[in-house]
Amino acid sequence: MIGLWAALTLTGALYASWLGYGGRGFAATLTAFAYFFLVMLLFAARGVADGLAARFGAGSGYLLGVAVFLVYLIYALGTNTFAFTRSAVVAAFIFAPLALASSAKQRTPGAWQDFLTIAGIWVAVKFSPSHWLWPYPGGRLAYVFTVLVCVNGALAAFVLLRRVDGIGYSIGWGRHWGFFVFASFAVFACIAIPLGRAIHFIEFAPRWSEWKSLPLTSLGILFFIAWPEELLFRGLLQNLLARASKSELAGWWTTSLLFGFSHITNIGFPNWRYVLLASIAGFFYGWTWRKTGSIFASALVHAAVDVLWHFLFRTV
């Protein structure tokens, strides 16, 4: 995980330097990104979360929350964008989930605090003023930073403090996973492409000139779109709904529909065509997560769908 983190962070830093970024603001931004991304990847390594919890107990969640907030202050002060209002909003993103998780500490996973925390994280990613919170450099990393902070907060609340098991937050590979990932992607594509064209949602419009950016774009989609969404919807929401309802099918189908409705504001409101296709996609992502027990496998399917859509189709 450290090797993967170093390679991706160094690549991003070199690319930003090539674009002309530098100075104290760039150093502070790179420091914040490197830390948030490191936490995101390290927790996917076997034994890291268990080791922290064993060493520090529930306090490890609070320690991670405090560390994330301090790193935000490094970013804000280093880029000369510090403001008390911004700091208060970021603090709420970090410590509100921890407060809810702490209030449910003695309850089994699937308490109302868990679902309220998930809803709050989704709202923070979807509707927060991210460009105002992360103004440097020109708001270009606003969404990425918001996602990373929310993932860090979710890990602190659910993995360290609540100790929810069965999330599947790991990067690994298991038996038959290749079949499950490929089958899920292939069957969904066979359904979604004809359906999307029939309802005039997408049309075939390959962007051949952009294919040189395929590797970096694919990694960005995997780590900053697919992985966080799979953590939230499959690893947490589907997992906890199945526990609360005592039904794997109920958790799976309900989460698929909620995943679809979470896209209703995308490209205009209400976008029912997007809801329909996203619900079907959520069905296949949820199936992959159930079969593998890993958000890495479902994130690969999710990322493959988004990459295919990005490079070969356009939304009508």
Please give the alpha-carbon distance between the first and last residues.
39 Å
The low-pLDDT segments are none
What's the count of strands? 2
Average pLDDT, all residues: 94
* Strand ordering within the main sheet: 1-2
Note the total helix count. Answer: 13
What would you call the quaternary organization?
Answer: single chain
Q: State the secondary-structure class.
A: mainly alpha
- Give helix % range: over 70%
Shape: globular
The ordered H/E elements are HHHHHHHHHEHHHHE
- As a whole number of angstroms, the C-alpha radius of gyration is 19 Å
**Proportion of residues in β-strands:** under 5%
Taking the sheet with the most strands, its summary is: 2 strands, antiparallel
Describe the protein's architecture and organization.
With 316 residues, the chain is mainly α. It is 74% helix and 2% strand. The protein contains 13 helices and two strands. It has a two-stranded antiparallel sheet. The longest helix has 32 residues, at 214-245. The protein is globular.
